[in-house]
Design goal:
- The chain is mainly β.
- It has 2 domains: 33 residues; 200 residues, Porin (Beta Barrel), CATH 2.40.160.
- The chain contains 1 helix and 11 strands; from the N terminus they run αβββββββββββ.
- Strand 2 and strand 3 form a beta hairpin.
- The longest helix is centred in the N-terminal third of the chain and has 31 residues.
- The radius of gyration is 28 Å and the shape is elongated.
- It starts with a helix and ends with a strand.
C-alpha cells in the first residue's frame, strides 16, 4: 500500500512539474512574441501595373489604353537599428514592360530604330514591343506595427530581352496571316533606371514607377519611356 501511495505521489509531482514547465514555456513565448513578426516585410512581392508611354503618341500612331507589365522581386530587409520601423531593402528583381499600339518598329537608315503606323486597312490581333530587364532594387522603407507600409527607391537594371510580336495580316500587303516575333531590335538602352514608390497595408498595396532613362539610345531610336501605376501583392 505504501508503495502504491509513493508511486501515486511521484506521478502527481511529475505531472505538476510538467504542467509548470509548459506554463513557463507559454509565458516565455508570450514575452518573446512581437506583433512586428506578423507584419509583411515585402521580402517577396509582385507588382502588376499598366504603363503610360511618354513621348510616344503622334498623329499617326497611338498606344493602347492598358499596357500591362509586371515586376517581381526578392529583397533583404535591413533595419536601421534593432526594432526600428525604418529599414533598407536590397535584392534582385525582374521587370517587364509592354507597349501595345498600331506602330511598327523597324530598322531604318544608318541602322537606327524607326517607327511607322500600320496601315488602317490591315487587320491584326496583336502588335506589341516588350522590354524585360534584370535589376537590383534599392529601397528606403517604413513599416508600422498596424501593417501600414511605405517605401521609395530606385531600380538599376540590365536589359535582358527586347522583342516585338505581331499577329495578323501581312504588314507588307500580302494576302496571308502571319505570326512574327522579332528579337533583333537594335539601339536599346542597356542599363535602364527607374525610380519607384509603393504603399499599402499588409499583403496589398499600390505602386508607381517612372523610368528616367529612355528605352532607346539618343538619336538612334524613339525617345520614349514609361510611367507605371498598379497594384502590389506581398507574398512574404
Amino acid at each position: 500500500m505504501k508503495k502504491l501511495i509513493s508511486i501515486a505521489l511521484l506521478l502527481l509531482m511529475s505531472y505538476t512539474i510538467g504542467a509548470q514547465n509548459k506554463e513557463s514555456k507559454k509565458e516565455k513565448l508570450k514575452e518573446n512574441f512581437k506583433i512586428e513578426d506578423l507584419i509583411i516585410k515585402d521580402r517577396l512581392f509582385v507588382d502588376i501595373f499598366s504603363s503610360i508611354w511618354l513621348n510616344f503618341n503622334t498623329d499617326s500612331y497611338k498606344q493602347r489604353a492598358i499596357n500591362q507589365g509586371v515586376n517581381a522581386a526578392f529583397l533583404f530587409d535591413l533595419p536601421v537599428k534593432k526594432n526600428s520601423p525604418f529599414s533598407f531593402g536590397i535584392g534582385v528583381g525582374v521587370t517587364s514592360h509592354n507597349l501595345f499600339s498600331n506602330a511598327h518598329f523597324y530598322i531604318g537608315k544608318e541602322y537606327t530604330t524607326q517607327v511607322k503606323a500600320i496601315d488602317e486597312k490591315i487587320e491584326y490581333s496583336r502588335n506589341k514591343i516588350s522590354f524585360t530587364n534584370i535589376n537590383i532594387p534599392l529601397e528606403f522603407r517604413y513599416f508600422h506595427k498596424s501593417g501600414f507600409k511605405i517605401s521609395a527607391g530606385i531600380r538599376v537594371g540590365l536589359m535582358a530581352d527586347v522583342h516585338t510580336k505581331y499577329y495578323g495580316r501581312d504588314i507588307n500587303g500580302k494576302d496571308e496571316s502571319v505570326k512574327i516575333k522579332n528579337k533583333k531590335i537594335p539601339n536599346y538602352t542597356k542599363v535602364p533606371v527607374e525610380i519607384m514608390f509603393r504603399t499599402g497595408w499588409k499583403y496589398f498595396g499600390v505602386n508607381a514607377s517612372y523610368m528616367i532613362t529612355k528605352l532607346f539610345e539618343n538619336e538612334k531610336g524613339p525617345q520614349m519611356y514609361p510611367f507605371n501605376v498598379g497594384i502590389s501583392i506581398s507574398l512574404y
